[in-house]
Write a structure and sequence with these properties.
A hairpin with a 5-residue loop joins strand 4 and strand 5. The protein has a five-stranded mixed beta sheet, with helices on one face. By secondary structure, it is of the alpha+beta class. 69% of the residues lie in helices and 8% in strands. The two termini are 68 Å apart. 24% of the residues are buried.
């Protein structure tokens, strides 16, 4: 048995059984020597043989059990288990035969039936162990009757001993099952804690990556876009007059440097974005999320995209994906739904993400209470989306399913916030958009 909190108890029981067998065989030897008689020599020989057999079986059987339970190849463990069962069966047969011979030679050997009861009940299947106990009890009664005559005490004694042994054996089995169940629960708890720690660490890394990506997008990338816009406007304002060639060249070099820096910044933003969004659109990421959720949970999840897609900023795209992930996780864990639908809608001036399920539903007014109790996924999602200028609407009722709607306004291009913008900025921004430059 693997080490557990109850291992000392089982070890104590095993040592007690070893001590009982040794003491009873020693009693047989002493009594045989003190009483003497024609069977003394044979009784001494069989007593020693039985003691040696018991000791050898205890040592070898323990090694075979450790081999069968060792974390090795499954085939090796199975072979070791089969060998262990065969050895135990042969060992019990030899012990039983030796005891029968010994009890016929010395009446004191009848007491050895009690440790044999425990061995039968512990090592044999119950369907075999109980008949073995009955046969051993009958053999002990007959042996006592042959030596000292049949009496009430000679019959009741072995019967009571057998009953007590069976009760203790059943209690031992119950204790062993309880220990195994406790070990399983502890292992599950440890695994769950490790998984929770791993996921928490991953979530922290992803949150930091998203924060950095959003910061780069909202500051450096937007600033470089504005610099490009202003430099392009300045280049056109320089005209074609004399002396402007060098100025136009310098402005062009600065604009190219800003474009290179913007491209590298966008590459960093892509690398810091969630892996599901790297090289994919939000529609592609939602489709893969639906497929993964369906495969892992068995709950069918469908995705629908409507309207003409337009470019969304990295923070908004990430927030939409996180909202879908959090909502579908709630559907799988709490809703008991038979299906879920994810709809991404590009409307005039806004984008909507709807996650709908036909589960048990809940009272949205309890979200704050559930957050206080540790279920704060919806609350944190609402906070994240609100910080980005979006909105979350939760529609649900007990028994009526749940619909979570995330809403963001469509992004609009804005000129630089400089108090003295270059001339023709609006026209230059339109020109840059026509040339594929993201403002």
């Amino acid at each position: 048995m693997k080490h557990s909190a109850l291992s000392p108890v089982f070890t104590g029981l095993q040592l007690g059984l070893h001590g009982l067998v040794t003491a009873l065989i020693a009693l047989v030897i002493v009594r045989s020597v003190s009483v003497g008689g024609p069977t003394m020599s044979a009784a001494l020989v069989f007593a020693v043989v039985m003691l040696v057999t018991y000791a050898a079986g205890a040592v070898v059987g323990g090694r075979l059990r450790r081999t069968a339970t060792a974390p090795t190849d499954h085939g090796v463990a199975a072979t070791g288990a089969r060998r262990g069962r065969s050895f135990v069966l042969a060992w019990l047969v030899f012990l039983s035969v030796e005891w029968v011979v010994l009890v016929l030679l010395s009446p004191d050997a009848a007491y050895l039936v009690f440790p044999l009861f425990f061995l039968y009940l512990h090592l044999l299947p119950r369907a075999v162990a109980v008949p073995a106990v009955v046969i051993a009890t009958c053999s002990a009664i007959v042996a006592i009757g042959l030596h000292a005559g049949f009496s009430v005490g000679g019959v009741v004694g072995p019967l009571v001993g057998a009953a007590v042994a069976v009760a203790i054996g059943l209690g031992y089995e119950a204790l062993a099952r309880e220990a195994a169940e406790r070990e399983r629960l502890i292992a599950d708890l440890v695994a769950a804690r490790e998984e929770l720690a791993r996921r928490g660490q991953e979530a922290g890394k992803l949150a930091e990556r998203e924060r950095l990506a959003a910061g780069l997008h909202d500051t450096v990338a937007q600033a470089l876009s504005s610099i490009q816009l202003l430099l392009h406007a300045a280049e056109r304002s320089a005209g074609e007059g004399p002396g402007t060639g060098q100025l136009r060249s310098h402005i062009g070099l600065a604009r190219d440097a800003a474009a290179t820096a913007l491209a590298e910044t966008r590459s960093l933003i892509d690398e810091l974005s969630p892996p599901a969004l790297v090289g994919a659109t939000i529609a592609d990421a939602l489709g893969r999320l639906a497929e993964t959720t369906t495969a892992e949970s068995g709950t069918p999840v469908s995705t629908t995209v409507t309207g003409d897609a337009f470019v969304l900023g990295t923070p908004v795209t990430t927030a939409l994906l996180r909202a879908a992930q959090s909502s579908l996780a709630n559907v799988v864990r709490h809703a008991g739904a038979s299906r879920a639908d994810v709809t991404l809608s590009y409307l005039d001036g806004e984008v909507l993400l709807d996650i709908d399920d036909d589960g048990v539903g809940f009272d949205p007014a309890t979200l704050v209470e559930r957050a206080a109790g540790g279920s704060f996924g919806m609350v944190s999602m609402r906070r994240r989306i609100t910080e980005l200028g979006g909105a979350v609407d939760v529609r649900s009722a007990p028994g009526a399913g749940t619909t979570v709607t995330v809403r963001f306004a469509a992004p609009t291009a804005t000129p630089s916030s400089d108090s003295t913008p270059a001339p023709d900025t609006t026209r230059e921004a339109a020109t840059m958009r026509d040339n594929g430059t993201d403002v």
